[in-house]
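If you are new to this repository, start here. Below is one unmodified record pulled from the training split, so you can see the exact layout before writing a loader.
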Amino acid sequence: MKCKNGFLTVLSALVSLVLLLLPFAQVKGDECPHQWVMVSTTPATCTESGHELYRCSLCAAEKRVTLPALGHVWSYCVTIKKATCTEDGLIRCYCARDNTHYKDSVEPARGHTWGNWHTTKQATLNEWGISERKCRTCGETEKSKKRPLAYRETYGLTLILSPLPPESHFLEDRGLALTQEISLVNTGKTDLFIREYSCKQGISKELPQPLQLLHGQAVTLPLTCVFTAEELSLLATDAAGGKVFPLELCFYGSLDSADRVYSSNQVQWQPVLSADASSSVLRLTQTLLSTNADPAGYQLSETVRCQVSVTNEGSDLLPEVLIQALDETEPILVQDLAPGETRDLLWSHNITLEEAIAGYSLTTWQASWTAGTDSAPLSTGSNAIVVPVTSQLDLLLDVVPVTAPANAAYYVPGEEACFRLRLQNNGARTLSNVTVFDPFHPNDPSHVLGHMDQIRPEESILLEIRYSITEEDVRNGGIRFTVTAQGYDTQGTLHTWGSGELFVPTAAPVE
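And here is the target side for that same chain:
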């Protein structure tokens, strides 16, 4: 019994020894069920990868596990250089893991925040004017030149398209017909011959009949566009599913062989509207009330009277509507315009010298309002009113005595009388080849007081008249005379002007 128990004790000790030495036994790699133990590690950084080294506890094999780079965590940024109106700024951001790492980014220049234009030098008939505006941020000044009042391009055409929605109707199997009011003003020196127009999308149309515009002429007429189904497909579609028709028209043609293109203002209208009408719709129209006394057009300083009507065509009350003529500075405030209500305002304007020179007067109005407290401002424009203005011709001849007789009552033989003659162009056209004749030799065209190539509007010229009293003048008891001048207008027409009669007393007749 003792032997058996001793054997079992020895056997148990051997088994324990084998189990103790088993982990240190060398096993072939293909046969080892690895038991990995990490023996070293290299941590990853923002920009570099790390790794971990593992060793098998059974066969001493090793493996390396790559740890990807962590990447930067940009936690805070500082401004190194502030952006200005014209120069970029610099912003630097630092990494939260390693503040030795940073990145720089450019803050774009903010651009100028311009104030309103202010005139620092008024343009005259023949001199350029200057307007300035300042940046509210940096104070930099920008200047703009204003053309002289009498400046006119050789070729010029102003197109004013009414922003009011046009009349529209569908044509069977033909598409859509649209009628829009348009004002054309020839602002150049050359007559124009308009034969064709096109829309912004390249849809080209011929006018029903060619239109000839003389320089300075202004016309307002309805323009009808017929769009075919194919052309309608080229037009954009608005959010409500209606077609958006561009009102930027280009007109082609001139009296010479070279075509010129004149573009109108850009307005869009949507004649195909959705079923849901807008709650904030405003219509602004103006009507000419006055008539010019001269059939050829309004005169300088004559008054043009218009009625401006503003109608609330929406469903919301409009607390404040600002109405302003585009050539005026002070807006008109209309308050509490109820839905469906129309307010009529009377407006008058005196024809300016600039308009007399241009040959027309053009007026358009703009209205702006806000539909709600959080809504963006809305705006609309009126139709344009263009009236012709005649270019007046008026040359003033003003004769004033400069010397007085020594007698203080009358001149005597041999004494010289001196007069100052002032010529002033009070009209709106430049006069050319103006000749002033000597009043004391009226029948002799070789005796002239002066010759001027040009006299511009508002320009004055001074001349001197001298005359020696003769015995015959004394016998006649005095001299009566007038000064005459002749010149041509811009059309090449000859005109004659005269001064008032002037009397020069002499000594009583000798018995």
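Two things worth knowing about this chain: Residues 2-21 form the longest helix (20 residues). Confidence is low (pLDDT under 50) at residues 270-277.
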